[in-house]
Amino acid sequence: MELKNYNRIVFKVGTSTLTHENGKPNFKKFEELVRVLADLKNSGREVVLVSSGAIAVGADSMKLPQRPTSIAGKQAVAAVGQCELMFIYDKLFSEYNQVVAQVLMTKDSMEKHSERNNVVNTFSKLFQYGAIPVVNENDTVVIDELVFGDNDTLSAVVADCIDADLLVIITDIDGLYDKNPAEHADAKLIHEVNEITEELFKNAGGSGSNRGTGGMYTKLQAAVIAQKAGVDTVILSGANLRKIYDLLDGEQVGTIFRAN
Ligand code: GLU
């Protein structure tokens, strides 16, 4: 299938895209993202947004100098920030006549067959109703051993469970490079990956910013999950979200990991 015919698409956006360096919400980015997704929805596509940012936005609302490091602290600010996040999405999407649905998931629920089934059925009803699911991990209830931990993994699990055509991971770098571009000036962007090798993981490194959780490593892990589920993955930069249109017009944007 060609990209322009992809219908059911999961978008994952990270904290580093949605917040300024001082941790405050970046409304310009929220607005750009919502506008593009509302437009894709209007074009007849089914979109799901997996959004991080609860912890950062919550820490900012509580006027904490930095994100808490304790589990209870993170869970408490996530509880505050998740409300704030949904308030922002609800407000912005409603300007484009779109209805959003908050879906908070746990790893535990995805591993139990009956609960996973409920999740699948809920998504399918939401698509039928025409709502846009906005997904995050249920940060306030999960316990350490049972967390997805990063929304890259969560977005791939969601893409798998709803049989998505495409997973788009929006981040603060153009895509996957053959070596770390922060250390090597001659690093080259890889446009297409068919096989996700150990070598790619070795080059991927850790988290890119101190606001988010994942780095390129967790994005590769997500691409592996998606690939196994038969879902293509694209990693692209959040610097210009209009590039999502170019991507779906079949242009070369970011790095695509082909499922087959
Ligand atoms: N669920 C966390 C949040 O909303 C983010 C996890 C991640 O950064 O991937 O803050």
Could you walk me through the main structural features you see in this protein, from its secondary elements to its overall organization?
The chain is α/β, with parallel strands linked by helices. The chain has helices at 15-18, 27-42, 54-61, 71-95, 107-111, 113-129, 151-161, 198-204, 216-228, 243-248, and strands at 8-13, 46-51, 100-105, 132-137, 166-171, 192-193, 232-237, 255-257. The protein has a single domain (3-257), classed as Carbamate kinase. It contains ten helices and eight strands. Helix 2 (27-42) crosses helix 4 (71-95), helix 3 (54-61) packs across helix 4 and helix 7 runs parallel beside helix 9. It is globular, with a radius of gyration of 17 Å. The N and C termini lie close together (11 Å). The structure holds glutamic acid. The site of glutamic acid has 15 residues, from helix 3 and strand 4.
